[in-house]
From TrEMBL:
Protein name: Dipeptidase
Gene3D superfamilies according to UniProt: Metal-dependent hydrolases
Molecular function in Gene Ontology: metallodipeptidase activity
InterPro entries for this protein: Metal_Hydrolase, Pept_M19
GO biological process per UniProt: proteolysis
Species in which this protein is naturally found: Paenibacillus etheri
Pfam families, alphabetized: Peptidase_M19 (PF01244)
Recorded superkingdom: Bacteria
């Protein structure tokens, strides 16, 4: 019988359960938008209250107040005060997940580089993945791998040389736009649906030269299509969904999915309740698997992966504050996440085996499950990073 927690009811037989555990433990499992390993349900209440007291003096500065809890969780985890940081990651079976830089400004860039490096320096079991082999070695050695990524580019301005600096630090995946318009292109919340700018084309060329993967997760439709046209290396969408299943601005059209696949890229499916199903209070991992299966039917099993983006490594009171005061400023519609809802079957990252179990329940082969759970991401990493 499986010793994993939070098992979603897929109606598996005992033999299927044994197969799922075997596959989950032998595969290289990758979550390319990994907000974990902690989630509100995994953070002790005493820690949540301590963070609330420490943040109280900053309540008059909403952006700082909203971002502080996650930063404090990182520091407390690095100091060993939140033991669940390591235990949840190991329980999840996730081999590699991204560690995110924030590039909104030069100040946030420097600060987040220090915060990310602290995670690697304080955990002898966490390695910085600069090559695909680093991830394979982490699996062999019983370690975990962190992939440095970023979701916005505003702080870079038009200084392409900063990309060289970030690559030297370890940046390996960079999203071209967030929700709104920037100097590179238009995000998914821009009504104009403008594509890649002249500068954006030069930006992609530099990413290709350095070996930084072009990510279109939050990009608008035309920006995504242009990126696929201009990039000489595979393009990805690290965390998105299928527009044909749920017509949300954060989901990709069939045309975009096909274009990404034609570059040799991968579409990562997220587990955000408001973006994959019409009722965030009753979204299950089966709904997430529906998006994965749609991509497989459309472009094949070689072009889909996982980038959950949820639940956040945060505390509940902070998530509520973010939804009420910050999300509208970032292009999210009122009531449109992020908040406290979670996908049933992925309330905690330690429940990640439910992806493997769900794929077993849907009849996928061992080989296909290995691709979906991380092999497809690893193929792209090997091609671009070496």
């Amino acid at each position: 019988m499986s010793t994993y927690e939070g098992l979603y009811d897929f109606g598996l037989t005992e033999l299927e359960e044994e197969r799922a555990v075997r596959l989950h433990e032998q595969n290289i499992n990758i979550d390319l938008l990994f907000q974990g390993p902690l989630s509100p349900n995994a953070i002790p209440e005493s820690v949540s209250e301590k963070i609330k007291v420490l943040c109280e003096p900053y309540k008059d500065e909403p952006m700082i107040y909203s971002s502080m809890p996650a930063k404090m969780i990182t520091k407390l985890s690095a100091s060993g005060e939140i033991a669940e940081y390591k235990s949840e990651w190991y329980k999840s079976g996730i081999t590699a997940g991204n560690r995110e830089l924030h590039l909104e400004s030069l100040e946030s860039m420097i600060t987040s580089m220090a915060e990310v490096q602290l995670q690697f320096d304080s955990a002898d079991w966490l390695v910085k993945a600069l090559t695909a082999e680093d991830i394979r070695a982490a699996k062999r050695n019983g370690h975990k791998a962190g992939i440095i990524t970023a979701q916005e580019t505003d702080g870079l301005g038009t200084n392409l040389d900063l990309l060289d600096v970030l690559h030297n630090f370890g940046l390996r995946i960079l999203q071209l736009t967030y929700n709104n318009q920037n100097q590179i292109g238009a995000g998914c919340a821009e009504q104009s649906n403008a594509g890649i700018t002249n500068y954006g084309r030069r930006f992609i060329e530099r990413l290709n030269k350095l070996g930084i993967i072009v990510d279109t997760g939050h990009c608008g439709k035309q920006t995504t299509l242009d990126a696929c046209q201009y990039s000489k290396t595979p393009v990805i969408a690290s965390h998105t969904g299928v527009e044909a299943i749920y017509p949300h601005m954060r989901c990709k059209s069939d045309e975009e999915i096909i274009a990404i696949a034609k570059t040799g890229g991968v579409i990562g499916i997220f587990a955000m309740p408001w973006f994959v199903h019409e009722d965030p209070n009753h979204t299950t991992i089966d709904h997430v698997l529906d998006h994965i299966e749609y991509v497989i039917r459309l472009v094949g099993v070689d072009h889909v992966g996982i980038g959950t983006d949820w639940p956040m490594s945060d505390v509940l009171w902070s998530l509520v504050y973010f939804k009420e005061h910050i999300a509208p400023k970032l292009g999210f519609a009122k009531g449109d996440g992020p908040s406290t809802e979670t996908v049933a079957g992925l309330e905690k990252y330690s429940y990640f085996i439910n992806f493997t179990r769900g794929l077993v329940a849907r009849g996928y082969t061992d080989e296909d499950i290995a691709k979906i759970m991380g092999g497809n991401w690893l193929r792209v990493f090997e091609e671009i990073w070496g």
